[in-house]
């Protein structure tokens, strides 16, 4: 993406997105309840398309929203784990993201409200993710894609490692946007992009680790998948910004999958922020990323027969 022509619309959209992210996260010291509300408010303020359909459902006891945009093929689905550092984010806030992905993929998107820390620390979110995966396998066979952004991206790969190790059904493919996959915050990109990433820092990741892990080993691959063995996983599409601190998390996952024999592709976008697909309604490069996600979903589902 680095050679794509930069436009005024791209610049304006990035400025707007970063201003919104700064408003939500600030210096990372705001009360958690305030940040939770601010993140949902930011997401909701972007509006929803006219052709959206939203239904509440329960997935193995876990509340979720089913979101579709336009005419969709119900024989397959995308499961999207929301971001928010395992302590923020909600299905309600992510309706717009789900609608954009649904429109691009041509399938409904299910957004689970997995349990959040610190009220429900590790492995609560992972257990919920596994429950959702079991439901997807029972409902759609092998015609489903697992996806998520930020912490949701890390949860996606962690849940696949867990399912693989237990011999459970894996998705047809996976999508990781700006994945949070290393709670030790060891990547050089934490230093290189410290001045350009307004959403995340090494300090905030360590704060999230304290809330989510509650003293559990941050090098456990089910918490920090960069430390895991990444073999026997489905095709995975990883997206990251070239100016975010989690860039090395994305690269480490991509190279680890290639090293261990799992198919992986990495798209590094220039001139975008962390988890920029949140801004698909206003950011041209977010719409481009969502379109790429839709193409990937179509590719991995192409040879899977409906149940």
Automatic annotation (TrEMBL):
It comes from the Bacteria. The keyword Hydrolase applies. GO terms for molecular function: hydrolase activity. Keywords: Hydrolase. SUPFAM superfamilies: alpha/beta-Hydrolases. Residues 78-277 form the Alpha/beta hydrolase fold-3 domain. InterPro entries: AB_hydrolase_3 (IPR013094), AB_hydrolase_fold (IPR029058), GDXG_lipolytic_enzyme (IPR050300). This is Alpha/beta hydrolase fold-3 domain protein [Gordonia sp. KTR9].
